[in-house]
Write a structure and sequence with these properties.
By secondary structure, the chain is of the alpha/beta class. It has helices spanning about 1-15, 35-40, 45-60, 75-85, 125-140; strands spanning about 20-25, 30-35, 70-75, 90-95, 120-125. Helix 1 packs parallel to helix 5 (about 125-140). The N and C termini lie far apart (about 30 Å).
């Protein structure tokens, strides 16, 4: 999670919402990414989506069933669905997102009967640091 939190800080420094993500397979880091929506001019360039794309490229497969995803914020509905489609084994996230999250909040994607694959989910790892990164980012923007 440390690396995902560092990526989130780098995203904030680049003017992006501070979210970072890492895909691991065993002890190997397969992808290390951050939010790039503004820089890429792409509304789907969330840290998780970038991580899944990069992991797929690196491993040469869309099935990431031996991989774990570490992300600094609870995934939104788009990202949660993509994580399921990628067959991620475990999802670890730091801060919950009551407003935009879709794992523990909102639509709770993995508990829906239409969900084909639900990763094992663990939350709260690095929660305070991730939450403070987000608060500081938006506090600075709102003045």
């Amino acid at each position: 999670m440390r690396i995902a939190l560092d990526e989130a800080a780098a995203a904030a420094a680049a003017g992006e919402v501070p979210v970072g993500a890492v895909v691991t397979r065993g002890d190997e880091m397969v992808a290390v990414t951050r939010n790039r929506m503004r820089g890429a001019v792409d509304p789907t360039a969330h840290a998780e989506m970038e991580a899944l794309r990069e992991a797929g490229r690196v491993l040469g497969t869309s099935r990431l069933d031996e991989c774990d995803l570490w992300v600094s914020l609870e995934p939104c509905a788009m990202c949660a669905a993509a994580i399921g489609f990628a067959r991620i084994r475990r999802l670890y996230f730091a801060a919950p997102d009551p407003k935009g999250g879709a794992v523990l909040h909102g639509p709770r994607i993995y508990s829906q009967p239409t969900c084909h694959h639900a990763p094992e989910v663990m939350s709260g790892i690095g929660e305070e640091e991730a939450a403070e990164q987000l608060r500081a980012f938006f506090r600075e923007r709102r003045g």
